[in-house]
């Protein structure tokens, strides 16, 4: 065995891993222009991946599908590894539900032929992206803690639900009476959750009726949530130091719950 095989690593080698982690942490969480540009690039790649997830049933039979699928899997794996290295607490990062969703999406990408029936759940990536501080600290900095944050979050939840239900209907009832393809499944989902109910496409059997009921009830709830975010009087988020109430009128001086004097920051102040 060579003598240098048992020799300790050079000081530069020992410092390499901490330097990489520090650089990644700066890129993912830093405030510099370089960090913001990096995160914008990551978010753009995320949106491209989500578009692929939505379009996957339409291009599944094309020769390029597997190549694109594995390319997306490679990019997602690299992003997860970089986020793990950039995290201050790896154990806490692994325990986050968002991480488990991303790992599940990665598994479906690595085994597309065996797990394609679960691939519709990949669209959850849209929900996790728009509901992450990573997104709002980068793209939504101007609209963070405003009405538009609530609107965009509610809209992303509705869109995510639409495509998850579309994928579920397509996977479960494809090539049955009425559901001839992905577009038919999308049409059925939109018609059902808006309670339009044209009746030209219906799902067979008791299971089909149950899915229709769940789609209608959930769709109404999500539409109401979006309407509330758009039209109800907006309340600013500021935690009362006494009672902990987090929602207050924009011009509130005292907390409605306990009467504590509030000092809500004004963005117009210099």
From TrEMBL:
<keyword id="KW-0633">Potassium transport</keyword>
<keyword id="KW-1133">Transmembrane helix</keyword>
<dbReference type="GO" id="GO:0005267">
    <property type="term" value="F:potassium channel activity"/>
</dbReference>
<keyword id="KW-0631">Potassium channel</keyword>
<dbReference type="InterPro" id="IPR013099">
    <property type="entry name" value="K_chnl_dom"/>
</dbReference>
<dbReference type="GO" id="GO:0016020">
    <property type="term" value="C:membrane"/>
</dbReference>
<protein>
    <submittedName>
        <fullName>Voltage-gated potassium channel</fullName>
    </submittedName>
</protein>
<keyword id="KW-0812">Transmembrane</keyword>
<keyword id="KW-0407">Ion channel</keyword>
<feature type="transmembrane region" description="Helical">
    <location>
        <begin position="40"/>
        <end position="59"/>
    </location>
</feature>
<keyword id="KW-0406">Ion transport</keyword>
<feature type="transmembrane region" description="Helical">
    <location>
        <begin position="151"/>
        <end position="173"/>
    </location>
</feature>
<keyword id="KW-0472">Membrane</keyword>
<dbReference type="InterPro" id="IPR047871">
    <property type="entry name" value="K_chnl_Slo-like"/>
</dbReference>
<feature type="domain" description="Potassium channel">
    <location>
        <begin position="159"/>
        <end position="230"/>
    </location>
</feature>
<feature type="transmembrane region" description="Helical">
    <location>
        <begin position="98"/>
        <end position="120"/>
    </location>
</feature>
<feature type="transmembrane region" description="Helical">
    <location>
        <begin position="65"/>
        <end position="86"/>
    </location>
</feature>
<dbReference type="Pfam" id="PF07885">
    <property type="entry name" value="Ion_trans_2"/>
</dbReference>
<keyword id="KW-0630">Potassium</keyword>
<keyword id="KW-0813">Transport</keyword>
<feature type="transmembrane region" description="Helical">
    <location>
        <begin position="209"/>
        <end position="227"/>
    </location>
</feature>
């Amino acid at each position: 065995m060579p003598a240098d095989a048992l020799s300790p690593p050079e000081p530069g080698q020992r410092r390499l891993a901490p330097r990489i982690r520090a650089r990644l942490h700066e890129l993912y969480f830093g405030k510099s222009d370089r960090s913001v540009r990096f995160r914008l690039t990551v978010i753009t790649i995320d949106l491209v991946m989500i578009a692929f997830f939505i379009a996957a049933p339409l291009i599944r039979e094309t020769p390029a599908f597997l190549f694109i699928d594995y390319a997306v899997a490679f990019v997602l794996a690299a992003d997860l590894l970089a986020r793990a290295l950039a995290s201050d607490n790896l154990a806490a990062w692994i325990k986050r539900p968002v991480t488990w969703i991303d790992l599940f999406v990665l598994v479906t990408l690595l085994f597309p032929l065996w797990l394609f029936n679960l691939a519709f759940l990949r669209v959850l990536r849209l929900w996790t992206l728009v509901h992450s501080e990573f997104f709002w600290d980068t793209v939504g900095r101007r609209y963070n803690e405003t009405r538009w944050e609530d609107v965009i979050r509610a809209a992303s939840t509705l869109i995510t639900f639409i495509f998850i239900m579309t994928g579920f209907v397509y996977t479960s009832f494809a090539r049955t009476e009425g559901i001839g393809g992905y577009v038919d499944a999308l049409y059925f989902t939109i018609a059902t959750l808006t309670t339009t109910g044209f009746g030209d496409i219906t799902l067979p059997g008791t299971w089909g009726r149950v899915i229709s009921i769940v789609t209608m009830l959930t769709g109404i709830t999500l539409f109401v949530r979006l309407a509330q975010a758009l039209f109800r009087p907006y309340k600013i988020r500021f935690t009362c130091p006494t009672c902990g109430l987090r929602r207050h009128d924009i011009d509130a001086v005292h907390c409605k719950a306990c009467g504590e004097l509030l000092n809500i920051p004004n963005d117009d102040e210099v």
